[in-house]
Amino acid sequence: MSFNLAILTDNWRELLDGMVLTVLIWVAGTVLGLAIGLMVAVVQLLTNRWIAAPLNVYVAVMRGTPFLIQLFIIYYGGPFFGLDLTPMVAGVAGLALYGGAYFSEIFRAGFVSVPPGQIEAARMMGISRLAIVRHVQLPQMLVIILPALANMTVLLSKETAVLSVITVNELTSVVQSIGSTTFAFAETLLFLALVYWAFLEIVTAAARRLEKRVGRFMLRTQN
Amino acid sequence: MFNTEIIVKSLPMLLQASVWTVVYSLTSVAIGFCIGTLMCAAGLSSSRLGRGVAAFYVSFFRGVPLLVQLLISYYCLPLIGLNVPSSVAAVGTLALCTGAYIAEILRGGFLGIPPGLIEAARMVGLSRAQILTRIEVPMAVRFTLPALVNETTMMVKASSLISVVGVLELTRLAQNIATSTFQPLEIYLTAGAIYFVINAVISSAGTLVEGRFKAETAR
Fold it and tell me: Transmembrane segments in this chain: where (chain B) (predicted)?
């Protein structure tokens, strides 16, 4: 087995583009997913069960089926509903919908973690339900659910690799096409693994630091 | 027009393929459980080498997307002279990946075992391996059952990725039917529903076993 690293340096432009696109997809998917998750959790919290029931179905379906199948349904099944999405849009939408279901569960657990006495007190003072969510529940629960949110964010960054299957030109797809034209699978794929590994270690370390910081803040307010 | 006829027609084939999905994912969870147990024990041992190997293993297999791991095993194993069938390589990769997650799950369970219990077992003269298989693993499994069941459902979902390296299972067959009939929506929705049912069955089986464990402990 020969090991030719020149293949990586020769194609650095494509690889860099792939990396940038992977990060962009990850950020877009995470931000949209967080927005969807928060909205779903708030609606479930504030409305009656007739509105919450379809949202529960959404969460259960997204959590119970493979991400790849969801992508296929959005990308190949979209035209059935007149949704002719580009691979990129379908991929980001899929990532956001998938992440949103998991994020909503995390937010839901967070809402429960704030003592009900505080909410009752705020209600007695005439604060609206939405304002209570914003000013009483969210600031406190975010500290508690931060590790879970960070964990899910890291998981989503790994799911971006799956987007290569619906021909999104992100890092995994770029590396595969370089590999299949040069037959240098070992170099390219090991490089790919190293990049993801390093990226995830960095993101995880950053999340730990953030948790520590926020945790310190929590201790200070309690004392 | 939503074509229900195509669903009825292809359902038997899809159900047959879903058997492979179940076989592949459960096999990999079973193998992964053994790997995870060993790695977890190594990670908690006093040996520096053991801890290092376990930390490296868990970090790598959790830090690299499963799809990339599958691609590596598919393209690179033949390069080092290992010509195994793609299904074997895929199941092996799934097992290694889930093993890393299971090791992390079991860690919590292992740490929850009262140290007095292990000391007592040692005094009675049980060997290290006996303590692991007779005391630590059964207790850790009880402590962490919900997480283990959850990991199993995750693996059922993750097994869809082995379609990418050409292994025939539910997703791969759905792809084949979808491209030959030009009815992707119907086929993929059906496949998704089958995955959903499989996972629902696994989750409820998990809840059932959990209830039994609880009843036993209460007695």
Answer: 20-42, 54-75, 87-106, 187-209
DSSP state of B136: I
d(CA B149, CA B170): 21
pTM for this entry = 0.89
ipTM confidence score: 0.89
CATH of B4-218, one of 1.10.3720.10, 1.20.950.20, 3.30.470.10, 3.50.50.60: 1.10.3720.10
- Distance CA(A134)–CA(A217), nearest Å, equals 19
Pair of tokens at residue A188: 């390219």
Q: Is the pLDDT of residue A223 over 70?
A: no
Gyration radius (Cα) of chain B, Å: 20
Q: What is the CATH number of domain A6-222?
A: 1.10.3720.10
The B-side interface with A (CB below 8 A) comprises 2, 59-60, 62-69, 71-72, 75-76, 79-80, 153, 156-161, 163-164, 171, 174-175, 178, 184-185, 188-189, 191-192, 195-196, 199-200
